[in-house]
């Protein structure tokens, strides 16, 4: 299928319309779901000897809430909660709540706070304990779901104009070193180092390579590229977090007969690509306009824009084929 034959996405909010409707702050919501009940968020505290604070032993998720005609809806809630449970399990955390309860809690906290365009942050962590590295034996497990406003994540105009990305000198840790598919707090020190480096060099985000020079991902997003009408991305063999947004893009491609290749790839292939874009719950589908001096097209007549519009159509309830991905909050 050529780009001209792409289906006409009527009813998709234009980017301008979307960003107008969104908050440009990340205001925190008043209520937090905290170990089983809704409480005043600002009144909650974490002990200074919480194991998670010292050793990064927490697992978390990020879930978006979007306005739909039926009221606010959480996107792919169940998949996020299941990934949280898997991340926790790998770190030996026995969750005091099952997936069902966590899904209900996510709905409760969204509804109570009156969130429309927002972001939920479920987080489970090892609490107070002695100075040792056996939290699964010694420390209680706590869980919360915090809510906040969230607009465009990677800065003003990122969805429309794309971002500038640099290859970090920090490499992505390998899946033989850490369970890379898990979203665990301690893993993000790697991303923070890379992001700080990008910031110091004047870029919006960093791309991390693996030890062998193949591409892993950006600091908090998966990477896709397009070449000759084929969509490429990597998988967990490249030590990525296999994102739920990535999976959504792959399903959109399949539905529209866009050829997809999933394999490891190199930085050079990105430099030869027709287009590059990033995917993540927070970043949604963000085009890359530059990678270390190499520029790519952005704008309406790109695959990135078309995937972005298809995605926005799904998350805002305009695509009846994917209603099962939306959990209505109202
Ligand atoms: C390192 C990393 N890769 C990829 C992703 C994208 O995952 P998802 O699309 O599920 O948000 C994230 C964000 O959660 C991430 O932190």
Write structural notes for this entry.
- By secondary structure, the chain is of the alpha+beta class.
- The protein has two domains: 119 residues, 2-Layer Sandwich (D-amino Acid Aminotransferase, Chain A, domain 1); 164 residues, D-amino Acid Aminotransferase, subunit A, domain 2 (D-amino Acid Aminotransferase, Chain A, domain 2), CATH 3.20.10.
- Helices cover 28% and strands 26% of the residues.
- The strands form two sheets. Strands 8, 9, 10, 11, 12, 13, 14, 15 and 16 form a nine-stranded mixed beta sheet that branches.
- Bound molecules: pyridoxal-5'-phosphate.
- Pyridoxal-5'-phosphate binds next to helix 8 and strand 14.
Outline of this structure?
The protein contains 10 helices and 17 strands.
Give the SSE map.
Blueprint: H1 15-21, E1 31-34, E2 37-40, H2 51-55, E3 58-60, E4 63-68, E5 71-75, H3 77-90, H4 99-113, E6 118-126, H5 135-138, E7 141-149, H6 158-161, E8 163-167, H7 188-200, E9 205-209, E10 215-218, E11 222-227, E12 230-233, H8 244-255, E13 260-262, H9 267-271, E14 275-280, E15 284-291, E16 294-295, H10 303-315, E17 326-328
Parallel strand pairs: 8-9, 8-15, 12-13
Antiparallel strand pairs: 1-2, 1-7, 3-6, 4-5, 4-6, 5-17, 6-7, 9-10, 11-12, 11-14, 14-15, 15-16
Helix pairs in contact: 3-4
The structure holds pyridoxal-5'-phosphate.
The site of pyridoxal-5'-phosphate (PLP) has 15 residues, from helix 8 and strand 14.
